[in-house]
Amino acid sequence: MLPLPLEGIKVIEFSTMITASLATMMMAEQGADVIKVEPIEMGDPLRYFGTSKGGSSGLFANCNRGKQSIRINLKTAQGRDIVAKLVAKADVLINNFRPDVMDNLGFGSELMRSTNKRLVYVAISGFGTVGPMRNAPAYDPVIQAKAGIASLQGQQSPTFMRTLMCDKITAYTASQATTAALFQRERCGTGQHIDISMLDASMSFIFPDGYMNHTLLDDDIEQKPLLADQLYNPIITANGALTVSAATQKQRSGLFSAMGQGTLIADPRFNSIDTVTANLAAYQQIIADAFVVLDTDDAIKRLEENDVPCAKCLTADEVIDDSQLAATQSFTVIEHPKMGKMRVMLPAAKFQGLRARPGSLSPSHGEHTLEVLASIGISHDTIEELRTAGVIAD
Q1: What is the 3-state secondary structure (H, E, C) of 262-328?
Q2: Distance between CA atoms of residues 274 and 288, nearest Å
Q3: What is the mean pLDDT of the chain?
Q4: Phi/psi of residue 116, nearest 5 degrees
Q5: What are 181-229's pLDDT values in tens digits?
Q6: Which residues are CB-contacts of 377 (< 8 A; sequence separation ≥ 6)?
Q7: Out of the domains of life, which is the source (predicted)?
Q8: Is 378 helix (H, G, I), strand (E, B) or coil?
Q9: Which CATH number applies to 235-312?
């Protein structure tokens, strides 16, 4: 069996909250060794957001599996020296602080890469390194608003995606960029600096369809409704809701047959994608009237029999028990020594046909401080002196 793709890669993470934490967890699940450098006082604030047990939240656990945590006082010269030694042997340094913070701490990109030529240095910011919002604080709803995502969701008024979408998209972007830089390093021998802003990552994600009406700029374009206006309206049933994505004429024929109105496929209002688009409100109203009297499961059965892409709108509890996710073995349950029994979503990518299994669990604050310091040659007596001086904690 082949090793995981990132085995042997050493990552140093400076972060709070989601973006860098999730990015490095994906790397850890692909084999990387990740050391999370946490402030000596309270650590990553993400530990305290949402449902928790044993001093950490489920949200923190979902973004920090497979890592080692060290508690270092970076206000001290000794603490900074310890981290500098770790970075000198690392392959990747990633942070999600505002511009200039890492320079002020003594861990700026130019300095770190001057001592470690192979280092891939990843700097995540909210809005980028230039411009009027360069130093503005950034959280997911702020980016959703700034990127127009909230306006794209709401037809009457802005509606936010009720999930940390921009944080997670930025994490995936950072992870992909990092591995691309590592691949390039294998060919040229040197690392590089990578800048990623939450705003750019989120705009890149939403742009292909969300901004398709702002892509073609000539005066003679033929503007049509956004896909969101055509596809993303829930269909209400007698006892729930479902969605249908009938994108082809064959699928629309199946949809009409499932509704018991198969002759509608010949209706001049609905006999092509162009006529459906031109009569979208009437099309959607006919579908709404047909399904509102049907039982959800019966409606799904009819649609499936006609090979129409569809799904019941599931609750979170229903998703956990979904037969498809059970068949693909997407979840597992693990036992955490402090947080107890935990459900884990396994990595989506399969290597050699296998999902990566959870390695070490999310770490306690400073759980690996002593182990990591010993690994870079710091003696037991010196570790005790550092602890007494308030440079480290475990």
Answers
A1: HHHHHCCCCCCHHHHHHCHHHHHHHHHHHHCCCCHHHHHHHHHHCCCCEEECCCHHHHHCCHHHHHC
A2: 20
A3: 94
A4: -140, 90
A5: 999 999 999 999 999 999 999 999 999 999 999 999 999 998 888 877 7
A6: none
A7: Bacteria
A8: coil
A9: 3.30.1540.10
- Whole-Å CA distances, 144 to 160, 228, 293, 298: 7, 16, 36, 37
Q: Is the dihedral of CA 162, 166, 171, 177 positive or negative?
A: positive
Angstrom distances, CA of residue 22 to CA of 25, 62, 95, 389: 5, 8, 12, 32
What does the domain layout of the chain look like in residue ranges? 10-207+328-393, 235-312
- Among candidates 373, 324, 379, 383, which has minimal Cα distance to 82? 373
Choose among 215, 298, 303: nearest CA to 253. 303
The C-alpha torsion from 317 through 319 and 320 to 325, rounded to 10°, is: 170
pLDDT at 357 exceeding the cut of 80: no
Q: Report which of residues 52 and 154 the model is more confident about.
A: 52
Q: How far is CA 222 from the centre of its chain?
A: 35
Q: Domain 10-207+328-393 belongs to what architecture?
A: 3-Layer(aba) Sandwich (3.40)
Q: Which residues of 49-82 are buried (b: 16+ CB within 10 A; e: fewer)?
A: eeeeeeebbbbbbbbbbbbbbbbbbbebeebbeb
pLDDT tens profile 28-75: 999 999 999 999 998 999 999 999 998 889 999 999 999 999 999 999
